[in-house]
Amino acid sequence: NALFGGNLSPRAAFSHDVSGVSQTFNQGVKSISLGSSLEFQRRLNFDFSYNMFFGGRVYCGTDQITNAGQTALGAQIAGVAALGVAPQGANWCSNANPIRDRDFYSFSVSYSF
């Protein structure tokens, strides 16, 4: 009977893929889930939670452009090279955590009779 005459049940969970890689396991990926449930008179239940996904390995590199024939922008790069300016490579970074952008809130109400 902690809040408004109901039972409050907080919860927290942490997950960390410490080492190794497989189809469902990715090294360095972490998640946190925080939530709370409020039950009134053993009939009405309100549940709220937040889930956050983060971490994972990051791979970065540069795609070097050595001549105009190796790119889709060959004509533009050839023109730049003709001016005496060396073309630049494309820098990129990729995260090995496919669910890092899928944080979400959830809320539910249930009634038992």
Q: Care to describe what's here?
A:
- This protein is mainly beta and 113 residues long.
- The protein has 2 domains: 1-57 and 99-113, Pantoate--beta-alanine Ligase, Chain: A,domain 2 (2-Layer Sandwich), CATH 3.30.1300; 58-95, no CATH class.
- The protein is 8% helix and 48% strand.
- It contains 1 helix and 6 strands; from the N terminus they run ββββαββ.
- The chain has one helix at residues 74-82; strands at residues 7-16, 29-40, 44-55, 58-63, 90-95, 104-111.
- The strands form 2 sheets. The chain has a 4-stranded antiparallel β-sheet, with no helix packed on it.
- It is elongated.
- The mean pLDDT is 81.
Keywords, separated by commas or semicolons:
48% strand; Pantoate--beta-alanine Ligase, Chain: A,domain 2; 113 residues; 6 strands
Describe the protein's topology.
Layout: E1 7-16, E2 29-40, E3 44-55, E4 58-63, H1 74-82, E5 90-95, E6 104-111
Antiparallel strand pairs: 1-2, 2-3, 3-6, 4-5
Spell the H/E element sequence.
Answer: EEEEHEE
At CATH's second level, what is the architecture of the largest domain?
A: 2-Layer Sandwich
Spatial arrangement of strands, main beta sheet = 1-2-3-6
Integer average pLDDT: 81
Number of domains: 2
Give the DSSP E fraction (strand runs of 2 or more residues): over 45%
**Helix percentage range:** under 10%
Poorly predicted runs? none
Task: Return Rg in Å.
Answer: 26 Å
Query: What is the number of helices?
Result: 1
Number of strands: 6
Assign the structural class, choosing from mainly alpha, mainly beta, alpha/beta, alpha+beta, or little secondary structure.
mainly beta
Largest sheet: 4 strands, antiparallel
Shape: elongated
CATH class of the largest domain: Alpha Beta
